Amino acid sequence: MSDTHTPTLDNLSHETRAFAPSAEFVANAIGKPEQYEAANADRLGYWAETARKVLTWDTDFTEVLDWSGAPVAKWFADGKVNAAYNALDRHVENGLGDRVAIHFEGEPGDTRSYTYSQLTTAVKQAANAFESLGVAKGDRVAVYLPMIPEAVITMLACARIGAIHSVVFGGFSADALRSRVDDAEAKLVVTADGTWRRGKPSALKPAVDEALAAPGHTVQNVLVVKRNGQDVTWNEKLDKWWSETVDSASTEHTAVGHESEHPLFVLYTSGTTGKPKGIIHTTGGYLVQAAATHRDTFDLHPETDVFWCTADIGWVTGHTYVTYAPLVNGATQVMYEGTPDSPHQGRWWEIVEKYGVTILYTAPTAIRTFMKWGRQIPDSYDLSSLRLLGSVGEPINPEAWMWYREVIGSNNGPNGEKKEHPTPIVDTWWQTETGAHMIAPLPGVTATKPGSAQTPVPGITVDVVDEMGVSVGNGEGGFLVIRDPWPAMLRGIWGDMDRYKETYWSRFEGMYFAGDGAKKDEDGDIWLLGRVDDVMNVSGHRLSTTEIESSLVAHPYVAEAAVVGAKDETTGEAVVAFVILQIEPAEGEDVVATLRAHVGKDIGPIAKPRHILVVPELPKTRSGKIMRRLLKDVAEGREVGDSTTLADSTVMTQIADSMRK
Ligand code: WT7
Fold it and tell me: How far away, in angstroms, is 312 Cα from ligand 1 center?
């Protein structure tokens, strides 16, 4: 495991503002103070009761938690449950078939709405089609799709038949797709011809073709959704059109209950080493915590709310709060394909107004982008339908939090009218590994503080500990840990259980180490301080410094590389790379452009370094470890800190010199 650094305490907030919910909000709130009391008094009893409340079980469970195989938990192990039945069929059986499940808004402005009945039928057809292609329970299906309803349909069809989906973000490269397909040994790939990006068709299928060009993979079929009618190269052996395979499949399909611990999905995320980790989530516990947190944190009233989570299904936020929780809870949600600035910078607010969105869940990086574009844009729309706002993905700075509250959460119409009570804001801390919210206010209970996720959700026990694993006092900082197993926790890393134990359970005895620094304020509320390991957070997306370094050194020009995340006003962090060249590039060649393109091809455009600096040396300790802390100082334009442990003390001067040139 890589070394961790102690979180910097100098950026601790001295925020003292707190906003209590209005009496009106409290009166109708779903999440109640008694939930904390019930969970504190009997944690497992609380989860058992919640499990029976939020899900319909085919077979009820008798044991809540089996922790005898720690750190691999079993929740509700002898219960059986079908995720797709819970997300779809049961709502239709309960007379809610005509309720809209998804309002889809395509980037070019095309729209489609699916009622629960229609979505159920679509998923049954996809389940039948997948089965006819030989996909059976336990098989893996790679999903490489844009934000279109077929993405949700594919995931739920897999869940229905017990196949394990592995969604690969559409912005990842062919190489990244191939390595994930290989690691999970996927049998089927579901993709699309392309998607729309800023008014132009953008292709997806060529990346699949490229990924599967070399032999040795396990894929038997590629299902292709026609999204924008682009020309595609057709591989007769593998490719089938979705329209011909799924749309003609039978609309009858009976969902059977799967074991609670049956894997639901694998989702790859960046860690501290070069190779992404396939995080494994199972069915029962994951769905329970997903649905319960969606209901409580967002104060969901499914009969009247219109929920919009802006995350792509390529990330865990899209899994939990687009595909699973809203549908399990019978909510109506909006799904949007494109970027916030297409065809204009008011597109999101236009969507909020059009569908009457009541709950909006997005990332600080988006909020800061809107701040930069100016408040006159959202001010010219009617956002009065909004009644709750959420944030996720990285620490939200108090300034962005206040802007969110004042500009978005107070908007009561385009004439500059203000809401009497601005909407509550819930900052939600969690991870791919945790599966669902872990730290978040209950909006009808907690007086919220700008910039803090504050308090563990009912039934979750988190703590902040020092280097030795001892709980710190209020007003002190340290490392965020989770003390007790939780229902939606990961069950391991695909194909590498040793790495699972090593990464999360070896730093502190008997506690899950999250990789984040945190602080407890004077009230005991938790403030997240960012990663303490070699993981960067760019626009709420996780990137590994080591993964990008490996990519750079794989290029023939590069002898050595060091990557750091430098603070960025909008994206949180930006990737900055320092490289030592081993070959003199050709006359007139732009090395930086070449290397940026190389990383983009290797991993994906989001991993492209913002800046690449060619340097003569890298700062290393006597044991050869790169001192990224010093490079971060350089990248952030600060005076370079303590460099006394460097093997060669002149290195930083050399770097500074080459930067001046
Ligand atoms: C890392 C997990 C959870 C879905 C999106 C990211 C950071 C996430 C917050 C928050 C401060 C946050 C942490 C965490 N993070 N939410 N509300 N406040 N930091 O999932 O890609 O697995 O990344 O994102 O550093 O460890 P992910």
Answer: 15
